Amino acid sequence: MEQLLPYKTMQSILKRIMLRILVGFLVIFVFSCKGQIKRKGEKPPVLSRSIEQMQKEAKVQRPEPKVKVTVPDFRYAAKLAAPAVVHIRARGSVAIQKPPVPFEHPFKDFFEFEFPERPIPREGRGSGVILTPKGHIVTNYHVIKDAEEIIVTLYDNRSFEATVLGVDPTTDLALLKIDADSLHFIPYGNSDSVEVGEWVLAIGNPFNLSSTVTAGIVSAKARNIHILQDRYAIESFIQTDAAVNPGNSGGALVNLKGELIGINTAIASPTGVYAGYAFAIPVNIVKKVVDDLLNFGEVQRGFLGVTIRDMNSELAEELGIATTEGALVDSVLKNSAAEEAGIKPKDVIIAVDGRKVRNTSELIGYIARKRPGEKVEVTLMRKNKKITVTAVLKSKEGKRTVTAAAKADWVEPLGAKLSPIAKEEAKKLGVDGGLKVLELKEGGVLDRYTDIREGFIITHVNKKPVTSIEALEKALKGKTMIMLQGKYPHVPGTFHYGFRLNYP
Q1: Model pTM?
Q2: Of the four listed, 77, 204, 271, 462, which is most buried by Cβ atoms within 10 Å?
Q3: Maximum Cα interatomic distance, the chain, rounded to a whole number of Å
Q4: Based on the structure, what is the number of domains in the chain?
Q5: Residues classed as catalytic
């Protein structure tokens, strides 16, 4: 059995415990009071340095704001620019698919069942910007790529079929033309003078919502996001946080004066819709590309002939130079403008024509505005020594001259080998002449979109008689809707084949 302590013994033990606890609290209280008394007599610590003091000692001269800071008003710019932004609908076809056999035929072992290959319809939508009263329109190349028909709808809901004057995949730009006059257009601004933090408007047709205006600021300049796949791609985007979504491609980025400063082209997003980052091609690049397409039929691009990469502190230390900005020359192409100017590997390009170069995108964006034969002053850092050389830019073929695009071959797109028929055959068929289809190219327009067969004799194109290749070229030139009329030598009657033709 357990032994129980007497009541008095228990009471004595509890008293001793309580007494010890009270003594402990008393000791703690006394020491804390002594510490407070001591601290009251001490002086607070004095900071030897402070950030505020260092800022004052720096005596930095800060420029006064150029403009009075006010609440921005976007109405003026929107009213000027929105009527010049158009909706673009690009129709075409994509990969041909052959449908599977839908059933098991009882005689499948004895016959081969062929199902015709058919193009799948495709329709893309985007935006464009009117540049002249006579209907010149700039948009993104990816908006109208592979289109067989391009329909442009204006701000006032009028619609026109557009002709492609030229495209440039390296900048993702295309120049269109519609048959209209006295159109509202957006004047060019200057993308070089655009500053980070400046208010801008994005105007376009996102999600097929016409004439949508959003506002934001310029977030950065000379961005390279590696979105263009062309070997000679030019990426030096203006980054903005104005809301841009699918359908805005090819639309306008304007300043508060209503001037065009960029063509909205891409977004950076994990979902495919706006997530805060949009990118526009600077208008100073757009100007040059559009003028080249209008005057030469293709872009005349000057090349310096170097491979480059961005500078950083590690490369600066490795090279033993003071600058951490610029474009480091990795290699120089043989017989290039750079080699002839004396540029060498491990040189760091820090300026062109007196313009500071902070990274490769700035250098690429500036050189992209130049044509073969133009001179540029290149400032280099070579082993901590500043050097300036003059380079005469060349084309990628190594020429210093501008060359217009070759004359368009209006027969080649048909994908057919043609030959004029003899007088005897024409007389037998009861026609004045014509062009016989000797061979059809697999995948060509006539092969893909018509049931025409080899041996067919083309006598008319859009009701105009054709008896020679030259006459056919003239009849096809610039036309989109094509109707061929003609005969087969051993089949009675006249046959017609209609299709759309697009000339990129």
Answers
A1: 0.69
A2: 204
A3: 145
A4: 3
A5: 142, 172, 249
